[in-house]
Amino acid sequence: MADKPAIAATTHSDATPDGAQPRAKTGAVKMDDIARMAGVSKSTVSRALSGSPLVNEETRARIQVLVDSHSYRVDTRAQGLRKGRTHTIAVVIPLLHEHDQPISDPFFLELLGHIADAVADHGYDLLLSKIGPGRASGMADLVDTGRVDGLIAIGQSTAHLGLERLADRNLPLVVWGAQLPEQHYVTVGSDNKAGAERAVAHLIAQGRRRIVFLGQRTVPEMRLRHDGYVAALAAAGIEPDPALDVPTRFASAAALTAMRSLICGGATFDAVFACSDVIAISAIRALQDQGLRVPEDVAVVGYDDVQMAAFYNPALTTVRQDTATGGRLLVDLLFAQIAGRPTRSVMLPTELVVRASSGVVSGTTTPGPR
Amino acid sequence: MADKPAIAATTHSDATPDGAQPRAKTGAVKMDDIARMAGVSKSTVSRALSGSPLVNEETRARIQVLVDSHSYRVDTRAQGLRKGRTHTIAVVIPLLHEHDQPISDPFFLELLGHIADAVADHGYDLLLSKIGPGRASGMADLVDTGRVDGLIAIGQSTAHLGLERLADRNLPLVVWGAQLPEQHYVTVGSDNKAGAERAVAHLIAQGRRRIVFLGQRTVPEMRLRHDGYVAALAAAGIEPDPALDVPTRFASAAALTAMRSLICGGATFDAVFACSDVIAISAIRALQDQGLRVPEDVAVVGYDDVQMAAFYNPALTTVRQDTATGGRLLVDLLFAQIAGRPTRSVMLPTELVVRASSGVVSGTTTPGPR
DNA sequence: TTGAAAGCGCTAACAG
DNA sequence: CTGTTAGCGCTTTCAA
Q: What are the start and end residues of every segment in region (Disordered) (chains A, B) (predicted)?
């Protein structure tokens, strides 16, 4: 770990600041207490609190007052134990690689934010969990130990088989990612192939012919994007050059290195299709460092339309994934499954957002943010 | 909600795909079942699983086999109910404004990632919760309803008073943010004033005199950064110009607008100190859109050293906050509080990372990423 | 070394 | 409308 912290100040001791109630940690008031004070039974309180119609309005009011004044809250743990539900769903981020800087891609954060909103709207809690490679069993545990009612996996990465197993066990599960043939689990994701195809076709339309594919093809979504890339080239009668197929992980640093070595390797190319905006941005940096101009010498297109894409310099042309509907859909489908309703995978349409980095001549007006 | 999804495919029905065990949803195996199979009592299983030394090794082995083969997992809900602990901690993101795009700043994500790691290392779960303005009571509920053992708030934003109340109730709570005088709760955060002061001093050292402060002073951390800004100016004998004090929210779009109107308002300045990297990046975009060069015409310094800062164009000079130690510290302090040990606030040192955007002449070598 | 019994705080029949 | 009675699945005395 890094160096010791520098300054230290405010002290938090267990002494109660002023003469406040020195209530012990176990001192929380329980339903029984409320019942006693209201002169009724626990059951009545329970009913009153759950809005049952079988309670005298007067009684309910009396109870409510007590509840408020003592700021009593039902213990969800006990409630869940009894009712068999947890009112919690897990969002799992399967890590792609050993020690990728945690959840670093802004795209994830945007999606996560929307998921969090949707989950909250349902009145559920959200458990966030990072799961290392191979350990899909960890996901099952979350359900088996009664911690959550269902799972949302962000990105199937290399966990495909593990996810299949979960789905086969009929655990409520929805995955953000690619729609694979024959898969047993439900996914929500953008139309990766079509999105990529359109992006690459756009580059070709700008007169580019030697287009680099920058991304990790082992991840299903990226493989589909690669398919789109190939399809677009084929449609234009261009033979894909394996030398322009550059694998890279998602971290900025990795992308930078990959791009650098491509350039230094003497490859010739006039465009780059990157599998994510973060990768695209790193690529641009590498290009500029080597004295290449974007988009004049090399046009670049990314994927995601992360917030920052519009603000980059040059502003990034990219394939937008709609994280807002995506997030909400993930949650809605999951709740449908929890409710026992059958669900099916959804593929979201993508949109090509053309900005400066792909070399389209535009006026002085900056293509704004979303 | 947006338009309807496009394509749909794989169906997830309740029918068990192949001849797998059509185990009902309640069909999970319980401790009692294991006990019966092992020919011992529930208590023994419990002891065996918790590593109690009062169990015959042979018995323990027999139980373990059963547990593994049935992939039995202890129900943490019941366990928690009995033991009074939840093994879960909450990370709360107090929202700054009504509908700021959820948790959009990459800085938060980086910090969150590290917190998640640290929490996982302790074997705890992490509940993610977004709380709207003013509703600090929501945080208390998390503890009162027995959902979590403690709270980590990321950014005090405008929730200061609410946090005070929580601390006064002696709930385990650690806050990422500014260290305010007399505050009752424990914080971890960077030395905002010193960091900002150094950044601004750096700009002054580059010969800049008219330096814009770009950020929201209502947030405690930002106010401290403003203090540092003023201090640096004062040290150089520069009178702060109120016209250069530009408030803006944290979203890229807001920063862009703020900067634009400053420029169009005809203000003259030769540098910008932005309260976050995201803001800095938007500011640069605005400057360039108006034909100003960075750093030649206007030098820019950000705050955070978000991953992308090194990759921006021009690479961003910024004040690095160490999210790795910060995250870990937040968690360690929280666990100390949960264990009943007294804790004190910590102020982390910052580091000024000088890159191209502040106009320092450097060779062809790019200041690399971290 | 093990088992029996008593709850953790709550809900849900089943009787009034 | 309300109270009584059983547990939800686990841990933990207290005895054996």
A: 1-25
Which architecture characterizes domain A192-321+351-367 according to CATH? 3-Layer(aba) Sandwich (3.40)
- Of A133-137, A236-240, B28-32, the poorest mean pLDDT is in A133-137
CATH code for the part of the protein at B88-187+324-343: 3.40.50.2300
Q: What is the pLDDT of residues A339-355, one digit of tens each?
A: 889 999 999 999 999 99
SS3 at position A311 = helix
Please give the nucleotide, over all strands, whose C1' is closest to the CA of residue B28. Answer: D9
What does the pLDDT read at residue A100?
53
Distance, in Å, from the CA atom of B223 to the CA atom of B219, rounded to the nearest integer, reads 6
Domains A88-187+324-343 and A192-321+351-367 share a fold: yes
What are the domain boundaries of chain B? 1-74, 88-187+324-343, 192-321+351-367
| Tokens representing residue A76 in the block | 């969800």
User: Is B28 near chain A, with CB under 8 Å?
Assistant: yes
Q: Distance from B281 to chain A by nearest Cα, in Å?
A: 7
Pair A198, A350: CB distance under 8 Å:
yes
Q: What is the pTM of this model?
A: 0.86
CATH number of B1-74: 1.10.260.40
Strand D contacted by B31 CB (< 7 A): yes
CA closest to B1 among chain A residues: A325
Measure B13 CA to nearest chain A CA, in Å: 5
Put simply, the answer to whether B129 touches A126 (Cβ < 8 Å) is: yes
CA distance readout (Å), B164 to A72, B91, B205: 20, 17, 40
Identify which of A111, A96, A109 has the alpha carbon closest to the alpha carbon of residue A250: A96
B281·A147 Cβ contact <8 A: no
pLDDT, tens only, A173-190: 999 999 998 899 999 999
Residues A330/A115, Cβ–Cβ less than 8 Å: yes
